[in-house]
Amino acid sequence: MKLLLDHNAGVNASTHTEGATPLYIAARKGHTEVVKLLLDHKADVNAPRTDDGSTPLCVTAQNGHTEVVKLLLEHKADVNVSRHAGATPLYNAARKGHTEVVKLLLHNEADVDASTHTDGYSALFIAAEKGHSEIVELLLNHKGDVNVIRHRDGSSPLHLLAENGQTKLVKLLLDHNPDVNAQCPDDSSTALYIAAKKGHTAVVKLLLDHKADVNTTMTTDGTTPLCIAAQNGHTEVVKLLLDYKAHVNASRHTGATPLYIASQNGHTEVVKLLLDHKADVNASVYADGSTALDAATQKGHIKIVKLVTDRGPTERMAHGGGVHAGLRKTRRPGLHAEARHGNPAHILTNG
To answer: Could you tell me the pTM of the whole model?
Structure first.
């Protein structure tokens, strides 16, 4: 290599296929001495590949070659240069989890909030998505925007981490004062709603302790965190939400309450919790007036039928309705037989 350069070989000549220079190729491979030699012979430190705009610093940051990154920066490589898609060296290093490279780039005044053109990902967002906690902390300490959103759905790093159940990273973000009630624009889901849906109890607790709105609703159907936790049978999450004063009878746009939803889905322990918190057994859905008792009966959830009726007769039972109507739809023949005797209590004691 040195011999060729001493005889005036083209130091910035590029390949025909991708337009990569010798410096780019050496940087990509992490060949520190070759990079130093090329730079000493005035190689263009910022020469991009013609196909995607990637520079030597972009590719060596992505591949984690710390010593090469140092050399390029010492030779005035553009720390904020980006590929055609907008990915900067900092983004590339953060995505791959190269902590020491991230430190170097930040020390050299990399733009911490630069984002990709296509999806709006910043270095912080991608590091959070990949679970690189040390890098997330570094970026936050350098004033990275904790509320940055990605283009496709308007979600923030907090939404993402809540969905993935990343308790440690959620705590880290919360220590930097994000908007804990930020909503995704498509459906108004918050980090709390997402964590409740997934059953991430520790994350739910953290969010509630940081003043997340326990009664936030989805604009699409009116679902609350309690509704979705009840639907999915996340007993511990339901308990937490109730302890933080979730409205036990808050219903979806259809009129379905958490008790109705849990009864329909056969989540016995959730039903017990809701009843202990004074859930209204007579609340009904708007379309047909069916109650939690009807929902449980139709699905054959006998334990729940007993639980609901043990709390006292419902309005629909008092009028000879709910249970019989529901039993005609269930596939459990024993229940049909008892229904013909006209005695809901007999159904329960013999179910």
So the answer is: 0.84
